[in-house]
Design a protein that fits this description.
The protein is built from 14 helices and 23 strands. By secondary structure, it is of the alpha+beta class. The strands form six sheets. The chain has a five-stranded mixed sheet. A five-stranded mixed sheet has the order 13-5-4-20-21. Strands 7-6-11-12 form a four-stranded parallel sheet, with helices on one face.
C-alpha cells in the first residue's frame, strides 16, 4: 500500500501516466496507442492469453501464504500494456537513487563505527538503539570496501502532480528483480512489434551486473571469487527468484546445511570435498544467518559465518545490520542523512511522514485517522497497517491502543492515490494504480538498472500493489535518449 502527503480534506485526482488531462495519449505513448487501435481488441486478447501460457510454461510463480485451500504457488500476474518512462524522467530518478544509496551506505558505516550522526544530534540516538534491526553484535566490523547495501530495491510512487517520490527503502534482501526480467522476456516474445517502435533500454543484463559486483567483493580477488546464493529453501515465497538468479549467474544455490565454517573460513560441501566460498549472496534475514550470534534456534544459517565475515575471509551481501537504514521510523530522516553526509539537497523527495514518537504528530494523526495510513515499521507487504478511509471506528480505536503501547513501532502518512496506468483487464482497457521498484547495484560503481518492477493493483480502485494481496505487474520501459 502506498501513500503520500496531505492535500487538503478531499482527495485530488490521481495522475494518469498514459493519458493527458484531455484523455489523449501522452506523446511518448502515441505510437503504442496507434498500434493498439490498429490491431484491435481481439489481438490484445490473444496476446494476453499467450503471455499467461508463456508464464505458466516457464514456471514463473510466486507464493502466497495462508491460502492453503487454493494452493500457495501461483502463476505470476502480468499485464501486457507496458509502462513507459522517458529519458529525462529516468535521468532524475537514476541520479536521485544513486545519491540516496551512497548516503545510506555512509550512514550505516557511521552507525557501526564512530556514530557521528548520533553525537551531532541529527537523528535521536534512542530511535536507532530501539530499532530491532540495529545489530550491536556487528559494531566495529567493516565490510569489504565499506559497502553495506550492495543490492537495493527502492519503492517509488508518483503523486497527483506527477512528481516521483521515494516511498520506502528496501536494503536487506530486496526481491522482485527476477519478475522484472521475466516481464521483459515475455513482452519481447509476444509483442516484438511494440519494441520495433521504441528504443527501450535493456534490463536483462542485471544478473551479469550483479555477478560482477559480487565478484568484486572477494577477499581473494575477483579472479578467484567463489560465490554462492544462500536460500532458506523451497518453501520461501521468493524461491523462484533464488533459483532464477543462481542459474543466470552460474553460481551455486545453497542452503545453510550445505555450508560450514572452519577456522573462520566458509566452505561449500561438495562431492569432491570442501570448496572455499568467498562471497555469500544471502536471501535469509539477519536473525537466522548465524545461530552463534543471532537466533540460536536457527537451522537456516551457518554457524560461525559472522566471525568469518569479521575476519575478512568472506563477504556477505547485503551486510548484516543493513535493515536499520530501511526502518520506516528512520525513513523520515533520510533527507537529513543525505545533507549530512553528502552536503547535497535530496534529488528525490520523501513522502510526508508523521513520527508517532512525536507527541504533536501523534495527536494530529489521531485527529485525522480517516485520512491516514498508519504503518508498523517492522512489517512489509502491506501487512500491519491501518488504511484510514476504509477503516472502522473499532479498528481505529484498536490502532490508537497499539500506537500508544509502542510509539516507536509506528509511523503515519496521509493517503495519496497512486498514479494510474492503462491495463488490459478482462477484455477491456481500464485504469489501475501502480508503483515502481527500481534496483540499484553497488559494486565498483553504483548502477541503476534502467526500469524496475512496476507493481499494479489489479482490483479496480484498489491501492494494494503487493502480489501477496492481489497485485500484479507490467513491463517497465525506459526510453533511450
Amino acid at each position: 500500500m502506498y501513500n503520500a502527503g496531505m492535500q487538503g480534506s478531499r482527495p485530488r485526482t490521481p495522475y494518469h501516466e498514459f493519458y493527458a488531462d484531455d484523455f489523449t495519449p501522452r506523446d511518448h505513448y502515441s505510437l503504442l496507442w496507434d498500434h493498439i487501435r490498429a490491431t484491435g481488441n481481439s489481438a490484445l486478447e490473444a496476446k494476453a492469453h499467450e503471455s499467461q501460457l508463456a508464464l505458466q510454461t516457464e514456471g514463473v510463480t510466486f507464493t502466497v501464504y495462508g491460502e492453503s485451500e487454493e494452493g500457495i504457488e501461483r502463476i505470476w500476474p502480468f499485464d501486457l500494456i507496458p509502462r513507459i518512462i522517458t529519458a529525462p524522467e529516468w535521468a532524475k530518478i537514476e541520479a536521485g537513487l544513486k545519491q540516496r544509496v551512497r548516503a545510506l551506505n555512509l550512514f550505516l558505516g557511521d552507525l557501526y563505527g564512530e556514530q557521528r550522526i548520533l553525537k551531532d544530534g541529527v537523528i535521536p540516538a534512542e530511535l536507532i538503539y530501539q530499532g530491532k534491526d540495529f545489530r550491536r553484535e556487528i559494531i566495529g566490523i567493516v565490510p569489504p570496501r565499506g559497502i553495506y547495501t550492495h543490492i537495493s530495491g527502492i519503492d517509488i510512487i508518483r503523486d497527483e502532480d506527477g512528481e516521483f517520490l521515494i516511498l520506502e527503502d528496501n536494503l536487506r534482501t530486496p526481491s522482485g528483480v527476477s519478475y522484472m526480467i521475466e516481464n521483459r522476456v515475455i513482452e519481447r516474445r509476444i509483442l516484438p512489434e511494440f519494441f520495433a517502435k521504441y528504443r527501450v533500454r535493456r534490463v536483462e543484463h542485471y544478473p551479469s551486473l550483479l555477478l560482477e559486483a559480487l565478484r568484486s567483493l572477494s577477499p581473494r580477488g575477483k579472479e578467484c571469487a567463489e560465490v554462492v546464493l544462500l536460500t532458506p529453501g523451497v518453501y520461501n515465497s521468493a524461491y523462484f527468484e533464488h533459483t532464477f538468479l543462481a542459474k543466470e549467474m552460474g553460481i551455486e544455490l545453497a542452503e545453510g546445511r550445505d555450508l560450514v565454517a572452519v577456522n573462520d573460513i566458509i566452505y561449500l560441501k561438495t562431492t569432491k570435498g570442501l570448496q572455499r566460498v568467498d562471497v555469500i549472496y544471502r536471501r535469509i534475514d539477519d536473525d537466522f544467518i548465524d545461530p552463534l550470534i543471532f537466533r540460536s534456534d536457527s537451522v537456516l544459517g551457518i554457524a560461525g559465518v559472522i566471525n568469518a565475515w569479521r575476519a575478512g575471509n568472506v563477504a556477505i551481501v547485503n551486510a548484516p545490520g543493513s535493515g536499520i537504514a530501511d526502518d520506516k521510523a528512520v525513513y523520515p530522516y533520510v533527507p537529513e542523512i543525505i545533507r549530512y553526509y553528502l552536503g547535497e539537497q535530496p534529488i528525490l523527495k520523501n513522502v510526508q511522514t508523521f513520527q508517532m514518537t512525536n507527541v504533536k504528530d501523534r495527536e494530529y494523526v489521531f485527529d485525522n485517522m480517516e485520512r491516514m495510513v498508519i504503518k508498523a515499521v517492522s512489517e512489509s507487504g502491506g501487512y500491519g497497517m491501518l488504511m484510514g478511509p476504509s477503516s472502522t471506528p473499532a479498528l481505529r480505536k484498536e490502532f490508537v491502543g497499539k500506537v500508544l503501547e509502542n510509539p516507536r513501532n509506528y509511523i503515519a502518512q496521509p493517503v495519496v492515490y497512486l498514479s494510474r496506468h492503462t491495463c488490459y483487464m478482462d477484455g477491456e482497457l481500464e485504469a489501475r494504480h501502480l508503483d515502481l521498484r527500481p534496483f540499484v547495484i553497488y559494486g565498483e560503481d553504483i548502477d541503476v538498472v534502467p526500469g524496475g518492477l512496476t507493481r499494479v493493483a489489479l482490483r479496480k480502485g484498489s491501492l494494494v500493489v503487493n502480489s501477496s494481496q492481489g497485485g500484479g505487474s507490467k513491463d517497465t520501459w525506459v526510453l533511450a535518449e
